[in-house]
Amino acid sequence: MASLAMFVTPKQHGATLLEFSVTVAVTAILMTVLLQSMFFYQDRAEEAAVRQTIANVRSALEIKVATGKLPGRSVDLTILAEQNPLDLLKEKPANYVGALFHPGDGDIGVGNWCFDRADKTLVYLLNNRNSLVDAQTKRLKYKVKLTRLPQLSARPSGTPDAVGVAFEQVKD
Questions:
Q1: pTM of this prediction?
Q2: Dist CA 89 CA 57 (whole Å)
Q3: Which residues span the membrane (predicted)?
Q4: Structural domain boundaries of the chain?
Q5: I need a surface site. Which of 93, 102, 114, 121 has the fewest CB within 10 A?
Q6: Over the stretch 34-53, which tens digit does the pLDDT of each residue have?
Q7: Distance separating alpha carbons of residues 93 and 74, to the nearest angstrom
Q8: pLDDT (tens digit per residue) in 79-126
Q9: Going edge to edge, which strands form the sheet with 139-148?
Q10: CA-to-CA distance for 99 and 171, rounded, in angstroms?
Q11: Contacts from 109-116 at CB under 8 Å and sequence distance 24+?
C-alpha cells in the first residue's frame, strides 16, 4: 500500500491562469496564420480559375477562326464577335449564371461568370479585389474584338485581308 501512495500526490490543481493565457495566445496566433494562408490560397485558386477560363475561351476562338480558314469553310467573324464566347466551349464553367441584360452585382453573385447581352461582354465578379493582382475593380469584363491590319500601308497589294479576333479585357 505504501508503494501506491507514492504515485498519487495529495493535492492536484488545474492549470494556472498564466498557463491558460499562454495557451490561448498561442492558439490565437496559430489560427491567425492558418486563416491568412487559407485566404491567400483561396485568392490564388480564384485567379487560376479565371485565367484558365480566359485561356479556354481564347483557344476556342482560335480554333473557330482556324476552322473557318479551311478550304470550303467560312466563319463570319462579325457574328463571332457578337455572340457569347462561352457558347464555343464544350462545357460552360460551373459558375456560369447565364446571359443577362445589364446584370447587376446581385444578379451575378461573387465568384460567377455572366454574359452581358447589352454590351456583348463576358463579366466575372471577383470574390475579393485582391484575388487578381491587376484588378482595379471587383467586376472584370472581357470582349471578343475583331482585329484587322490597316488597308494600305501594312500589307502588300494582292494579299488577303488579315482579319482575326482577340479576347481582351475591357475597362468600364
A1: 0.74
A2: 7
A3: 20-41
A4: 21-153+160-169
A5: 102
A6: 999 999 999 999 999 999 99
A7: 28
A8: 888 999 999 999 999 999 999 999 999 999 999 999 999 999 999 999
A9: 96-100, 112-116, 121-125, 139-148, 163-170
A10: 20
A11: 110/138, 111/46, 113/53, 113/86, 115/84, 115/85, 115/86, 116/141
Q: What is the 3-state secondary structure (H, E, C) of the chain?
A: CHHHHCCCCCCCCCCCHHHHHHHHHHHHHHHHHHHHHHHHHHHHHHHHHHHHHHHHHHHHHHHHHHHHCCCCCCCCHHHHHHCCHHHHCCCCCCCEEEEECCCCHHHHCCCEEEEECCCCEEEEECCCHHHCCCCCCCEEEEEEEEEECCCCCCCCCCCCCCEEEEEEEECC
Q: Residue written as cell 494579299?
A: 159
CA distance 138 to 125: 6
